[in-house]
Design goal:
This protein has 423 residues and is an alpha/beta fold. The chain is built from 20 helices and eight strands. It has a five-stranded parallel β-sheet with strand order 2-3-4-1-5, with helices on both faces. Strand 2, helix 5 and strand 3 form a beta-alpha-beta unit. Helix 14 packs parallel to helix 16. The protein starts with a helix and ends with a helix. The mean pLDDT is 86.
Length: 423
């Protein structure tokens, strides 16, 4: 059985690697490190299929170090112990390079077992992970390594790799190749920055291609079927999930309804209306807040409707909520105020509640001095009377500052008028 096409055409030199010019281009940091010949401990971080393993293999293949490869999904403590024993033997005379793929799957004990040896240089560790290493990799490993982030590859960069893959397949079969217009671009745009996925799609296209004598014919309709939804790079527990939610909230906060709809569409296309709904409820209170408080019940109604309808109809009330929030006036005065108040509590600045504000609805409360002297605001004109409500040690504390929107400024003017005329 032959290897997958993506393995058969894997680049052998850095110049052949698709994308990652921000770290592998001439004069860029990772390229300089590799060219120096002195390989430090490194962690390659980024989504699948964008060259992490390829670059690690190129480094390993060109290194004078004795090389081992492990995968975090299957490696055991004994596997690591065996490598450590070799590091102490003649095999480790010039040093050992350990390429550890998917390091996030190793537990803390397994990762800790490597520390002494990467600390003194007997083992050089190159590891790769699809998860954020600052969340999933042991801190001691992080502190002894340099983290390089690999980015999704642009369609423009993927196109040559797709074209090359088609030609290699045709050459292997000893046949000519006929590609319908738009095939290469469609695969390059549909792979979502995953080069391996695009190469695998090429292989599927070849296997299902029409054949006319000595010619392979790849038509666009077939390609569309084979690449459907492949541009959706989304993991509900991974970085991409939180990146989309972050971009959604920041787009709404920035009053860009078009960008907000784009990120909402990504979540809906992935079927994740629960995360979208929860984030919209947060945004209504956090970013629109008191500038348009009606946004909260309106968004709640949209979310309830979406949950009852389900997709695809749920997209309609959720889109309404997104547009409403993005185009509404903004105020974060509420979240700033409560965070200011909670900061005092965390610091221990609570203080004793004034006795006249304490509960007096029980026998003997009066004997304890509870609720005596309380002024009931509704008994006074405009339902307001000057009275201290905060504890004595915080009596002059100001947590809330009125926002500069129409609604909050109107409330500010109202209360300044009421309170000033009573003084």
């Amino acid at each position: 059985m032959s290897n997958p096409l993506a393995d058969r055409i894997r680049p052998k030199t850095l110049d052949d690697v698709v994308g990652q010019s921000h770290i592998l281009g001439q004069g860029k940091p990772l390229r300089r490190i590799i060219d120096s010949g002195k390989i430090p401990n490194m962690i390659f971080y980024g989504p699948s299929g964008i060259g992490k393993t390829t670059v690690a293999r190129i480094i390993a293949d060109n290194s004078k170090l004795h090389m081992y490869k492990l995968n975090g999904t299957s490696a055991s403590v004994q596997d690591i112990k065996d490598i450590i024993l070799d590091a102490q033997s003649i095999l480790g005379y010039n040093g050992i390079l350990l390429y550890l793929d998917e390091i996030q799957y190793l537990n803390k004990k397994q990762q800790q077992s490597l520390l002494e040896y990467i600390e003194d240089g007997r083992i050089t560790l190159i590891s790769s992970t699809t998860e954020n290493p600052y969340f999933y990799v042991y801190n001691a490993i992080i502190s002894r390594s340099t983290v390089f982030e690999f980015l999704p590859v642009s369609p423009k960069e993927v196109c040559p790799a797709v074209k090359r893959a088609f030609q290699i397949c045709a050459d292997e079969l000893g046949m000519k190749l006929k590609l319908e217009s738009g095939v290469i671009d469609y695969i390059a745009h549909g792979c979502g920055g995953d080069v391996r996925k695009s190469i695998n799609t090429v292989e599927l296209c070849i296997l299902s291609a029409d054949r006319s004598e000595d010619t392979l014919i790849v038509n666009l309709d077939n390609v569309k079927l084979l690449t459907q939804r492949s541009n959706m790079r989304y993991d509900r527990d991974g970085d991409e999930h939180y990146n989309i939610l972050s971009a959604l909230q920041k787009s709404i906060r920035g009053s860009d309804e078009n960008a907000a709809l784009h990120y909402a569409a990504r979540l809906m296309e992935a079927g994740d209306i629960i995360s979208l709904s929860r984030r919209l409820l947060v945004i209504a209170a956090e970013d629109i807040g008191l500038a348009y408080p009606q946004a909260i019940p309106i968004v709640k109604a949209c979310v309830d409707s979406a949950m009852q309808l389900g997709l695809p109809e749920a997209r309609i009330p959720l889109a309404d909520a997104v547009i409403l929030l993005a185009t509404a006036p903004k105020s974060n005065s509420g979240i700033v105020a409560i965070d200011n108040a909670m900061e005092d509590i965390r610091k221990g600045d609570a203080g004793e509640i004034p006795a006249y504000l304490q509960d007096g609805h029980y026998g003997g409360a009066g004997k304890l001095g509870k609720a005596i002297g309380y002024k009931y605001p509704h008994s006074y004109p405009d339902s307001w009377v000057e009275q201290q409500y905060l504890p004595d040690n915080l009596k002059d504390r100001k947590y809330y500052t009125y926002g500069d929107n129409k609604l909050e400024l109107a409330a500010k003017d109202y209360w300044e008028h009421i309170k000033n005329k009573k003084r």
